[in-house]
Design a protein that fits this description.
It contains 12 helices and 13 strands. The chain is α+β, with helices and mostly antiparallel strands and about 375 residues long.
Length: about 375
């Protein structure tokens, strides 16, 4: 099993465990019992059901060894031939076209009745994995009813997004400025905001690091399915920090209504009054925006909460504990992580370069991390600590 697959399986297990981390023992028991009734789509393995004891075992592993302990050990039967060959796959795909919206269970029974498949070699779970991988039997769903919703305390939920802004001169060219920002669901405080010329993981990382340094760790980070938010690096970072990362459904912008509404405020009250001709750099745009946030938003009456964002944040601090990290722990959590085996000459290869490590690690698999924006600062990690 390769590193990325093992990491995705660990993330799958963490996403199930994450809500339990906020519960007591009795609530955990009820939660695990409820999850045991569900059918889960596991990366690589497909549809699976788990017992409450399996969830408890994962939780024990996580508490003992952290996120890395959730990675699975290699299967003994890895690499064996699949039950659905090319000829059978073509027949199943052809049959699926006649039954759009049909459940997998019903479709499985129909295939058996027609003699296309036999139950022992092609189980319902095997068919379910095949249907999911080939996007068969899909159907449209009804619109989701919307209800007013708000978290009870600060840092329980942050909503993150990108917004396209004005064109600025960058050297000899003009490029569009893009805002990456996060809003606290309870207080409406903008915990992080950064204008840049990119919509990628690095812009998101810089925004989140600044936000966490200033306002502490959130319990949940909610975002869309864009490439920056669905990157494996962000999922691993959130898992290491104990943040639950949740993605909205595709094309479901109303579920991120609070930050969408804030973006409209930016266009109406900040960009509408901004003289773009006087902004000659992205740094100056960030300075103007920070000043507007402080005086034109955070300290201004917000009709949705009946007070100012800063006042509501301060009022809730009396009954809410904020989790903070040291700067070193925070920055190490965001580092890119790779595993390498040390060669006999006491080196490992990373990004096309050879790196020297202590001779005691010859022949061993080690973990190396480095910051996304400084590829030359490579650290050797052992037991989740920099060596």
């Amino acid at each position: 099993m390769d590193e990325k697959l093992a990491m995705r399986i660990a993330l799958f297990r963490y996403k199930i465990l994450a809500p339990a981390l906020l519960k007591d023992v009795v609530e955990q028991k009820d939660y695990f019992a409820a999850q045991a009734d569900k059918v889960w789509e596991v990366p690589h393995y497909g549809s699976r059901k788990f017992t409450p004891s399996a969830f408890k075992s994962w939780l024990q592993d996580y508490r003992k060894g952290g996120f890395d302990a959730l990675q699975p050990t290699p299967r003994r039967d890895a690499g064996k031939a699949r039950k659905i060959d090319a000829q059978l796959a073509e027949r199943i795909i052809q049959e699926a076209k006649d039954f759009p919206g049909c459940s997998v269970s019903l479709f499985h029974r129909r295939l058996i009745a027609q003699g296309i498949i036999n139950p022992p070699p092609v189980s319902e779970s095997a068919l379910r994995r095949f249907v999911s991988a080939n996007d068969l039997l899909s159907k449209r769903t009804e619109p989701t009813p919307r209800k007013k919703y708000e978290k009870e305390h600060v840092n329980q939920l942050w909503i993150a997004d990108f917004m396209y802004g004005p064109y600025l001169r960058d050297g000899k060219k003009k490029r569009q400025a893009i805002l990456c920002d996060c809003i606290d669901d309870h207080s409406r405080v903008i915990v992080g905001a950064l204008w840049s010329f990119t919509e990628n993981s690095l812009a998101l990382e810089c925004t989140l690091k600044t936000a966490i340094s200033r306002f502490g760790l959130p319990e949940i980070l909610y975002a869309d399915n864009g490439s920056a938010f669905s990157a494996l690096h962000l999922e691993v970072t959130c898992a290491r920090l104990g943040i639950i990362l949740i993605h909205s459904k595709p094309y479901d912008s109303p579920s991120r209504g609070k930050i969408e509404r804030f973006h409209r405020t930016i266009r109406d009250k900040f960009l509408a009054q901004l003289d773009v001709k006087q902004i000659d750099s992205i740094h100056l745009l960030n300075d103007h925006f920070a000043a507007w946030l402080n005086s034109g938003y955070h300290k201004v009456f917000h009709s949705g909460i009946g007070t100012t964002p800063f006042d509501r944040w301060d009022a809730d601090l009396q009954q809410t504990s904020i989790r903070f990290l040291s700067q070193q722990d925070l920055y190490f959590a965001f580092y890119q992580t790779f595993k390498r085996k040390v060669k006999n000459d006491s080196t490992v290869q990373l990004n096309g370069q050879l790196w020297q490590v202590p001779p005691t690690y010859i022949g061993k698999s080690i973990e190396v991390r480095y910051p996304s924006d400084r590829l030359q600062e490579v650290y050797l990690f052992e037991n989740n600590q920099p060596v």
